[in-house]
Design the sequence.
């Protein structure tokens, strides 16, 4: 996919810094980066060991946004935990909701009606688009491209409007319940969504016009933060980061949940595993999300929204499940242990940002500090999810 | 008005009708047999009616779409015959304590000391190159109160399995950092939240909470409202878990009284 574009501009140099100690004899210095720094996308703190501008070592320090969500999960009945999941990855609440309610349904043995399943996939794919748009906006502005920020937020607004029409909230959606969907699509929602889908592919082209062949963009991203497939698997990386390294693993295809086996879409892959490839993969993912949305709207069945279930959901004592789905940032999964009570005994979150961030020291070593900003952007972390 | 029935019979009339003389004669054998047969026929008819009703209900239930049926809660099933479980059991013998599955997920319970070896075997021989998740859990009623749970994924077979070891507050768990690098932060999180140490871990420090924090918050006996460890904002002065607990009041942020004092008061 990227080779043709790459060869279009063959003058892009290799960005890794050649280093020769003998020239300057400079000392290594410790530098504190964050937690209050606009390009760390939240409260990430990095202890850097730098040699001039070159990063020798990097030690991430996290936990500044720790709110004890997993402890809170152990206090509330199953359905009351859904709002807590919104607050973890706060730019992709719908996928968090789906991962959680999916785990609860697996634990209790509920079957979701098809219409509810379709609505869930609609919300999740819209959420993927909005999350990737936010990522592109902030990533581009980190690297110095101002315009995509405004363009992306313009379209993200339309997605958030769709969420608002559905459930009244724009970010913390709380839009799913164990067993199905709390409400049907409102009147006119499908038409509004179709309007958005007609308009959106042209907008993706617009972003790509600004960036994909842009010399500065390529210079700042090609060869930066290269993640080889072996290292990616070793670190448990998932999502667009893994696929940019060439590994074809997408839970929507590998272990289809909801109705993903009934829609036709492709999993975009790249080969080089650098920042530029991750950018291309995410752009293509937005196009594929549009395709999935169109098919869902065409196939949308009528019918029930909620499965037959007890008023108070009780998990079987000792029952335990792990359920993971493909979120915008990677695999988000929930490990839930039941206790025979309406509250979970243990509820652990497999947060994709947390696991993906672990590879940061490996990615940034031997890069410039300015590239560190690009690499943090490309890992697409949300600190609310890292720290939980 | 006229077609209405009288509201109720006057009570004086009622006793006049009720006394009926019970027939004193002993029932004959024939009569008894007839009664028995009648009762048996009745019971049979009732059973048949019940069976019909049950069948009807089952048919209605079966005709319903799956989401309108009653939820079928999964249960634990023995999975000793699973090829993976068999392979592991032959290789490691008693180190594999049990193999069960819940909702289709195979779970192997592994003896504490051999988890690193078992993990390495899973990675090298069975293609489980991907550590999806590693987390802890606390069961305070048990003698070995902590679980450490590993979720593995294989790209070759597309299969997921779960490993589990149990440990107490003292015994460290062998690290799997050398098997999967992904385990590094996850093990630090388990240590942070439960106080379970991992032997051989390159950096066994807290990850989400600050150095000097007292206690491990996901343990079931840790107060939900939290404890005030304000003084630990100067971690360089305190060893891990040695930060002072400040405050003496009874507000929601104040610590619970020390455990020893509680016990004394109880006795």
Sequence:
């Amino acid at each position: 996919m990227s080779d043709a574009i790459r060869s279009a501009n063959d003058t892009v140099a290799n960005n890794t810094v050649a280093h020769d100690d003998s020239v300057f004899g400079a000392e290594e210095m410790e530098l504190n980066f964050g937690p209050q720094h606009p390009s760390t996308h939240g409260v990430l703190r990095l202890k850097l060991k730098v040699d001039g501008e070159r990063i020798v070592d990097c030690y991430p320090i996290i936990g500044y946004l720790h709110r004890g969500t997993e402890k809170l999960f152990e206090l509330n009945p199953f359905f009351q935990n859904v709002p807590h999941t919104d607050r973890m990855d706060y730019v992709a609440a719908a996928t968090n909701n789906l991962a959680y309610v999916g785990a609860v349904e697996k634990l209790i043995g509920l079957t979701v009606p098809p219409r509810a399943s379709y609505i869930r996939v609609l919300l999740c794919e819209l959420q993927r688009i909005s999350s990737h748009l936010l990522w592109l906006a902030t990533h581009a502005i980190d690297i110095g491209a101002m315009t995509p920020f405004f363009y992306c937020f313009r379209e993200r607004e339309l997605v958030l409007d769709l969420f608002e029409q559905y459930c009244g909230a724009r970010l913390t959606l709380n839009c799913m319940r164990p067993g199905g969907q709390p409400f049907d699509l409102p009147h006119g929602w499908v038409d509004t969504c179709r309007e958005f889908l007609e308009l959106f592919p042209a907008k993706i082209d617009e972003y790509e016009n600004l960036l994909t062949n842009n010399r500065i963009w390529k210079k700042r991203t090609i060869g930066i933060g290269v993640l080889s497939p072996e290292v990616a698997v070793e670190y448990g990386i998932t999502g667009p980061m893994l696929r940019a390294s060439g590994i074809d693993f997408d839970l929507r295809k590998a272990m289809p949940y909801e109705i993903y086996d009934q829609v036709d879409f492709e999993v975009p892959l790249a080969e080089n595993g650098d920042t530029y490839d991750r950018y291309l993969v995410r752009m293509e993912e937005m196009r594929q999300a549009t395709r999935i949305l169109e098919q869902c709207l065409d196939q949308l069945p009528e019918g029930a929204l909620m499965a037959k279930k007890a008023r108070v959901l009780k998990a079987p004592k000792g029952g335990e499940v792990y359920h993971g789905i493909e979120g915008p940032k990677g695999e988000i999964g929930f490990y839930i242990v039941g206790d025979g009570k309406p509250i979970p005994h243990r509820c652990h979150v497999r947060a994709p940002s947390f696991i993906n961030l672990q590879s940061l020291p490996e990615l940034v070593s031997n890069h410039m500090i300015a590239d560190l900003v690009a690499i943090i952007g490309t890992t697409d972390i949300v600190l609310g999810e890292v720290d939980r | 008005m006229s077609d209405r029935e009288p509201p109720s019979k006057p009570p004086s009339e009622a006793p006049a009708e009720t006394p009926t003389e019970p027939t004193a004669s002993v029932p004959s054998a024939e009569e008894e047999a007839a009664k028995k047969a009648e009762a048996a026929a009745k019971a049979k008819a009732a059973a048949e009616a019940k069976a019909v009703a049950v069948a009807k209900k089952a048919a209605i239930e079966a005709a319903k779409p799956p989401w309108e049926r009653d939820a079928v809660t999964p249960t634990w099933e023995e999975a000793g015959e699973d090829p993976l479980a068999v392979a592991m059991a032959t290789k490691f013998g008693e180190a594999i304590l049990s193999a069960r599955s819940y909702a289709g997920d195979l779970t192997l319970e592994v003896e504490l000391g051999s988890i690193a070896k078992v993990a390495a075997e899973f990675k090298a021989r069975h293609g489980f190159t991907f550590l999806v998740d590693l987390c802890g859990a606390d069961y305070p009623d048990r003698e070995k109160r902590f679980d450490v749970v590993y979720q593995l994924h294989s790209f070759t077979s597309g299969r997921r399995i779960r490993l589990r070891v149990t440990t107490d507050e003292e015994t460290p768990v062998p690290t799997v950092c050398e098997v999967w690098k992904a385990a590094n932060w996850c093990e630090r999180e388990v240590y942070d939240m439960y106080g379970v140490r991992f032997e051989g871990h390159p950096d066994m420090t807290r990850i989400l909470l600050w150095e000097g924090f007292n206690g491990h918050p996901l343990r079931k006996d840790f107060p939900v409202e939290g404890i005030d460890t304000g003084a630990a904002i100067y971690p360089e002065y305190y060893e891990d878990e040695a930060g002072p607990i400040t405050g003496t009041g009874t507000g929601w942020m104040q610590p619970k009284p020390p455990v020893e004092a509680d016990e004394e008061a109880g006795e």
